[in-house]
Structures are given as C-alpha cells and as structure tokens.
C-alpha cells in the first residue's frame, strides 16, 4: 500500500514538506499519498496575516501574530531558498529587508510553480489525533470550518507544522487588572498608528519588544519603556526610549520597576513570547518546550523520539527560517520513505544530548548563530537538498547583529549579498524609518517617501 502522509499546517514549514515531496517526484521517485490540513483559507502561516484579533470568522483563534508595517527583521539573504532565489522570483535585485507582503509573495511563488496546492485542504482544522501502536497508524480528526463537518483520516506518518508563535505567554503582574489604559499581548498588536503621542511600556526583551517598540517610535509614540526580566537589549535606542528592569507591580497608570524607578503609561504591550501548544495531539506526542534553538525529544530537531512516525517542523527558535524548514522537510521526507535509516533510540538520544549540552553552553548571539548553522549543516549533508554556503550565511547573521548594535533604526537599510546567486541587494528607495507604506506595489514601484528624495 502507498505510504499515507498527513501534514498539519500549511505555513512555510508545511509548504516546505509539500515542496520536498514534489522535488523527489520531479526526480522520478514514487511519492506517498499526501494530505495537508490548513485552518486558514490560504497558505503562508504567519505571513498570511489578518486584521482580526482574538477569533477569526469561524470562531477559531487567529493564528498570525504579524502586523501592519512589519518588515523582515533579518536579511532576506539569510532565509533564501537554495532552489528558488529572490532573483528568480522578482526578476531583479531588491533590498535586503522587504516588508511582509513581499516575503509572502516570495514563499508563495515557489510552491505555486509546482502543482502542490491540490494536496491542501483549506479551512480545515486538526481537532484530535490518536495513534494505534498495533497498526502503527495515526487517526486524525479534522473539522471543515465551512461545513462544520468532521472527518477522520488515517496516516502512516504525521507531520506537525503548526508553528509556535501563535499562543501567547501571558504573565500576571500585581495591579495590572486595574491599569486604566490598554493592555495587550504582542500577538494582538496590529499596528502602532494608535500609539501616536502615547507613553508605552513593553514588557520583554526580545524581537517583539524591540520591533513593536521601534515601530511605535516610527509612528510617533511619545516614549517607549522596555522592561526586561533577564537581560536588557542595550541597543543604542532613540532618545525617547529607555530600558528598565522588570515591573514589580502597577498602581493605577503607574508601573513600578525593580530598580525602584516608576513611570506612568498609556498602554502596556506584553512582548512575553509564545507557548508550544498542540491541542489536537495527545500529551504523549505533544512537544513541551520553551522557545529554544534545540527543543529536547526531537532527533535532528525533527523526529519524535518515542514515535518515529511523528515529525515536527519549525519547532525551534529561529535564526534560519525558510531554508531551515526546507532542510528539515527534506530530512523528514527521507526518513519517512526509508532513504534515511534511523539509528537506535539510544544512539538518537546520544545525538540529542550532545546538542542539548552544546546549547546549554551558548554564551552569546554569535554562538547561537554558529549553533544553528552547524545544526543545519548536519541536516543538509544528510539529504539531496541543494547545498549553499552556510558559513557565508552565518557571517551575514553576525553582520546583521552588529548592524543592529550600531544603528537599531537603520539596520534595515543595510545591503547584503545573496549566497545563492551572488547578487548584491539594491538600496530601497525609502529608508525604513520613513517608509509608511508597506505594500508590495509601493515597495517595488515607489515613489520614495524620503523627504530628501525629491518625491512626496
Ligand atoms: P506558521 O507560520 O506559524 O504556520 C503554521 C500554520 O499552521 C498556519 O498557517 C496555521 O493556520 C496552521 N495551523 C495551526 N493550527 C492548526 C490546526 N489545528 N489545524 C490546521 N492548521 C493549523 N521569520 C523570518 O524569517 N523573518 C521575519 O521577519 C519574521 N518575522 C516574524 C514576525 C512575527 C511577529 C512572528 C510571530 C514570527 C516571525 N518570523 C519571521 C518567524 C515565523 O514564525 C516563520 O517565518 C514562519 O512563519 C514559521 O513557519 P511555520 O510554518 O513553522 O509556522
Ligand atoms: P518574541 O520576542 O515574541 O519573538 C518571537 C521574551 O519574553 C523574552 O525577552 C523573555 O524574557 C520575555 N518574558 C517571558 N516571560 C516573561 C515574564 N514573565 N516577565 C517578563 N518577561 C518575560 O518572543 P521570544 O521568545 O523571542 O522572547 C520572549 C518570534 O517572533 C521570533 O522568532 C522573532 O523573530 C519573531 N518576531 C519577528 C519580528 C519581525 O520580523 C517582530 C516580532 C517578532 P527572558 O527573561 O526569558 O529573556 C519584525
């Protein structure tokens, strides 16, 4: 009987899995029966964002945490597919930090070229999974959100590709209940225009705090205070931005910080990260992990230790994104089809433990980039995924982090060279700080919004 593969989620990771099978098919391999279930009405995952907050039109939790005016926070050269370059997609060089819609277009472009959309059932949410040890089959219950009908499907292999930046971690702070202004989590942030002239408090010290904070600055917020639990980001912030240690409590509009300082705020944005949540999986198959580069219990970061018919894609914290999901999908494909033979449980555990030990010793962002580069190298070496110069990409990550240290408002105006095509990015017509229109049309066709450019 043909192998039956179920994929849950058609974000970049699920799309990578579809593409991995398509690549094998194009090379003449027989491929499994594939079904992919996506709860939204289009693919793209986080990149297919919504204006809605809370629940979607079907009463399901809104998946995407992305927002208006979101521009890539890493160089596009670090995430470029090695089998589908930006040059191929856009037909001309573009800048290194495009806005969301442009990257969404790019990831769609590759899969639209191959005939894989037919495998995806849209508006279909995974509700429940069971595994039969005797038959080694998964039974997956899926609800069609348009008809509210449930169906069950049986698979030999199951791929979990539902992302882990969607279900917010929401800590409690004494007195926050009676804070008179707006309190929201980064997941529900949709744009900073309404923060014009406001005094804002961001709790958290990672990408969301940095980006929502600087976006609010760009949109004219009066002040931004970033409150960290462990380590300040310590960028060279604009004059209206400060970092404070953790909030101890609120009294009315006043936040009190652990260094004894305090401040009055109009709004609080909890940039406190996300939870791994897989409500459609039984607990014994469900990954429990903080947001780290190497979650435990996944061999090669992909294969579930106690049940090697189960695969997770994109479960790591991410320096690399699209190309890493590819490498994982290619690896998962080859394990599923028997091209790669897995070592014993004990051998796999030894490999996982070695990575966990190395992870525990990581000291800084450069070391983290090296770590994920080496992880990716191991995956790519194991399959026929088209190799690319990983050391060069790792250096791009380090340059990018250095640029952020020297100019947190200007790093997106820097240019990087593609390791896939050798093409140098072109300067965007508008500096990020002045770019108030994030549409693909404006991005590709201008005119500039820089005041000194001579254009409006
Ligand atoms: P997701 O993109 O989260 O896709 C998961 C898919 O699964 C979704 O389509 C969802 O609808 C579907 N799904 C969920 N539950 C179910 C279910 N029960 N049944 C069926 N379908 C389901 N990366 C970058 O490279 N550059 C950036 O600039 C960048 N910016 C980011 C900004 C934000 C605010 C966030 C949160 C993330 C950002 N990322 C960025 C990282 C981003 O997570 C990855 O680029 C990528 O989207 C991860 O892909 P994924 O497929 O693993 O998960
Ligand atoms: P993210 O920043 O949303 O990025 C996700 C942060 O939350 C850490 O600083 C952590 O502090 C803090 N935190 C957690 N619990 C806390 C508590 N109880 N009190 C105070 N602080 C708390 O989440 P994380 O996990 O990175 O940080 C959590 C993803 O979204 C990233 O992959 C990022 O790339 C992406 N993103 C991208 C963009 C753009 O591209 C914008 C936003 C987000 P501590 O103490 O644990 O360090 C533009």
Automatic annotation (TrEMBL):
SUPFAM superfamilies: FAD/NAD(P)-binding domain. InterPro entries: FAD/NAD-bd_sf, Flavin_mOase, Flavin_mOase-like, FMO-like. GO terms for molecular function: trimethylamine monooxygenase activity. Keywords: FAD, Flavoprotein, Monooxygenase, NADP, Oxidoreductase. It comes from the Bacteria. Pfam families: FMO-like. Its EC number is 1.14.13.148. PANTHER family: DIMETHYLANILINE MONOOXYGENASE (PTHR23023). Belongs to the FAD-binding monooxygenase family. This is Trimethylamine monooxygenase.
